[in-house]
Amino acid sequence: MTILDLPPKEASVWPVTLGILSWVFWSNLTILFNKWVIESTEFRTSIILTTWHLIFATLATQLLARTTTLLDGRKTIRMDARTYLRMIVPIGILYSGSLVCSNIVYLYLNVSFIQMLKACGPIITLLTSWAWHVTPPTLESFLNILLIALSIGLAVAGEVQFSGLGVLYQLASLIFDANRLVMIQVLLSSSSAHDGGGQKMDPLVTLYYSAPVCAFTNFLIAFYTELRAFRWGVVSETGVGVLLANAAVGFMLNVSIFVLIGKTSGLTMTLVSVPKNILLIVCSVVIWGTEISVLQMVGYALALVGLLYYSLGWETIKGSCGAGYTRLVGGVEREEKEAEGGV
């Protein structure tokens, strides 16, 4: 079911609505919480913070696997040493790189500008899928990519607190994540062809298998970058409770994604992410007083239009608008007839 496919009257829309609201809440809270910890406390070591999140996720998924049915999907997956090395380890390393870069970027850029740069995500994912020969390139996709790229260029040009290094970290995060997503698609499709069935992993099961690899990879990165100079007194100064809550919020985001995936589609999540990101930008302005130029707003608005066109396609947008217009006109005509009948 998508936003464009309304459920039948007897079906309740509340589970989907609550799932979407839960995802929006945990997603935005995770981003704002991470930004606050890195910028407003003494805990400014973003790689160590990411490593802590992954250690928490490893322990939490192990606990859930033994006490709930949320991870029963892992029982349908044949996970041997070869499969783990071939599928999980590369994905885990890419995921680790994405998390490290996405947390480091908070040291250089404000939340609103980061969200604007994230509109490049579909472009990078599509280019990566072309490079992996997963999706054939088309002229329409290329032109849409140009529109989004030029729009993001306007947003970058209008940024008041610009940092070239911060932009590079954000782009690196998107590149890591795009390769992770495409690799999952390639490996699972090849597994499907080889096994005749396919091994499908939901986000929580993927986290169950990949979190230990990510935690280990992050620990190695932290050991050679931040850990040697890390002052352990910062933990008590920041607050053990704050760090536990921060890790728990990040983990709840993964759980909310897992729950929502079973109730809706990727298209719905793409559509909902638009107002979600706008809300996050507003929160950034309210909480930190972030300055946003008119040029940035124009660039981001054009990027969102390009993103919606990329996700839906012209025919779907045209059909949806036509259906909405028909409903609106039909409702007005029905009210007029009822009024005439009353007279």
Automatic annotation (TrEMBL):
Domain Sugar phosphate transporter: 20-311
Listed transmembrane segments: 12-33, 45-64, 84-109, 116-135, 141-160, 208-227, 239-262, 278-310
Keyword Lipoprotein: no
Membrane topology type: Multi-pass membrane protein
Keywords of the record: Endoplasmic reticulum, Membrane, Transmembrane, Transmembrane helix
Organism domain of life: Eukaryota
InterPro entries, alphabetized: Sugar_P_trans_dom, TPT_transporter
Cellular component, GO annotation: endoplasmic reticulum membrane
Localization: Endoplasmic reticulum membrane
Complex and partners: Homooligomer.
Similarity comment: Belongs to the TPT transporter family. SLC35D subfamily.
Protein name: TPT-domain-containing protein
Organism: Aspergillus ibericus CBS 121593
